[in-house]
Each structure stands twice: as structure tokens, then as C-alpha cells.
Amino acid sequence: MHRLAGLREPACLLDPEGVVLFVNDAWDRFAADNGGGMRSGSGGLVGTRWLDGIHGEEPRRVHAELLRRAMRREVGAAGSAVVHTTENNDPLRARLSATRLEAIASPAGALVAVAVTHRRVRERPIADVYAPVEGDGGGHRGADGTWEQCGCCRRTRRPGPGGEWDFVRTLVAVPPPATRFVYCPLCVELHGPGEPDLHGPGGPRAG
Q: pTM score, two decimals?
């Protein structure tokens, strides 16, 4: 815990059941800077399940698989940590981030915790990566009254047979309550862990 407390990168500590035991000051600052406040910081996360703080069934499955892999790794062995690269975009900036999940064992070798650390790999203006779409996002609302937004790149699916995805700034800034968070096909290909069981029987897989 002391090692995580001194890091500049956002980090948290999970117990063997995936419950948050601790988040560092860098995590709290990141939450405050990105609109999450205490709800997404120590005041709202400690004592809750880490996976419950991830929005959307599909993104939650991805992170559950990462956590499962980390817990199964041989503690202390070379390459024992699980490192997952993903996007963490806001309306103005495209960020590429790396999440590191590392199991921590007792002297007897039993799993006692998992350390989760987030490191920013690259940051660029969003227009360098996606063509932003302006407006209120009403045209991206589906026939069922919901929006379908990628929990990774934050693009929203355009209704219709084409299945196109657009980066709509207003929907990224404040997703409507009726937003369903999924992974778009591009992010499944680029950022999905890629095991066959990741999305369940018949679900999409990383290419």
C-alpha cells in the first residue's frame, strides 16, 4: 500500500474478492479533474467492488477477465503482471492508457491483494484521432430510445444498417441516462484481451 501511495499514477488496491481497499492521492486527483469527484475517488470506491464502478456489461466483462488473469498468474514470476492498453478519452483529448494488474501474495504464497495502476501512454488532441461531431447527439438515439456508446473510445453508434460510430462531444461530456456502454468493433479488435470466452458464447471476439 505504501508503494502505491507514493506513485504519481492513479492506483488502487483490491482484496482477493475484488473489493477496493485503498486508492492513492493520484487516483483522487484524476477523479476530481475528470468530473468524477469523490464518487469516483476514495470516498465512493473504498469498500465497493472494483468491477461495479465500470459502466456497461461488456466493458465490465473485459475488466473481469483481466482481473481473473491477474489472480491466476504465478506471483513474483517473470511477466506475472497483466498489462492492458486502452483508451481514456474526454471531449477534447484522446488518451491512450496502460492498466497494470499485479497479484500480491503472502509469504506462504496465498493471494492477498491485487494492485491496479493506470499510466498514461500518450495524449493528443481528439481531432487528431477522431473527427468530432458537434450537436446534441439526438440523431444518434436509437429506435428504442437509448444511445450505444463505446466505453473505451467513447464513440456513439449511429442508428441504421451501416453500424458507424461517431465521436459526439456532447455525448462524451454528459452521456444521457439512457446510454448503454459497450465496446465498439474497433476497440474489441485493438483493446480486447482476446480470449474466446471473453464475450460469452457467440459473442464478438478480438480479431
A: 0.79
In the chain, % helix, strand, coil (3-state, to 5) comes to 30, 30, 45
CA distance 103 to 17: 12
CATH topology assigned to domain 2-125: Beta-Lactamase (3.30.450)
Distance CA 152, CA 89 (A): 8
Phi then psi for residue 57, to 5 deg, are -65, -45
Q: How far is CA 180 from CA 20, 48, 52, 147, in A?
A: 25, 22, 15, 6
Give the per-residue pLDDT at 77: 54
SS3 per-residue string spanning 7-44: CCCCEEEECCCCEEEEECHHHHHHHHHCCCHHHHCHHH
The sign of the dihedral angle between the CA atoms of 137, 140, 142, 147 is: negative
Each domain of the chain, given as residue ranges in start order, spans 2-125
Q: Which residues contact 198 (CB under 8 A, 6 or more apart)?
A: 61, 62, 65, 192, 205, 206
* Ranges of the chain with pLDDT below 50: 78, 195-207
